[in-house]
Amino acid sequence: MSVSSSPSRQIAARVGRRTATVARAAYYATGYRVRYPGKESLEGRLHQWETATGRGDVPLDQSRWDEQYGRGRWTFLSGIEEMAHYAVIVGYATFLKPHSSVLDVGCGAGVLHERFAAVGYERYTGVDLSRVAVDSLQDSTPPNAIFYAADAATFTPPGTYDVIVFNESITYFSDPMAVFAHYQQFLSPAGVVIVSCHIQSPRANAILLQLTRDHAVLDETIIRQGKVSWRCVAFGETPPA
Fold first, then answer.
1. CATH number, position 154
2. Residue 201 has what pLDDT?
3. Which of 73, 104, 201, 220 qualifies as a cystine partner to 126, CB 3.0-4.6 A?
4. Who has greater pLDDT, 68 or 58?
5. How confident is the model at residue 131, as a pLDDT?
6. Cβ-Cβ contacts under 8 Å for 89 (sequence gap 6 or more)
7. What are phi and psi of 99, to 5 degrees?
8. Contact status, residue 57 vs residue 204, Cβ threshold 8 Å
9. Per-residue pLDDT at 158 exceeds 60
């Protein structure tokens, strides 16, 4: 028996995983605004562990995204199993701001654009860190849509928008609160921001909890499709009666 596969090493690895999982849950349970001694150090170690263990809701660099899109890791997002929460996003947008200008932050290979195209929009802008994902859209982009391969955390879009969407993308930013605030400056008067996340993710739940504490909520709902559930929140000021 090799040393690396010894029972003691296996037990230690399991204990380490359990400890990290508990620490992750405790970290996100405290929320993003709470500061305490050692939190920054914990954030760094937690991010290293999340990345090393392949957690699906943490920031990745461009090379990782390009590699994943290149091998088809995200093609399942175009399947029927994902359609329910897309329908809610588009439903909120078309009800609150029909035929609007839309900014899709973290657009990937354009799965949400396909849903918006079916109902129509004034203009559509998408941005994603993956060059591979964005390049896949160039041959099918209509004249009133444009997609950028850029770091969405600091991207400056051309103009302002009636609707800004984070479709399962807000968790992939190192500072999601700062990114949300960054894009508010590109929101048209009385515009809406729509955020959709997996509710199975402790990170996503913590982010949404903080966002709903800090910003006005127009409406929200939970969508379940098969074994997966999403929380979809529309942020914006309530119009006067």
1. 3.40.50.150
2. 84
3. 104
4. 68
5. 97
6. 112, 115, 165, 167, 194, 196, 232
7. 45, 60
8. yes
9. yes
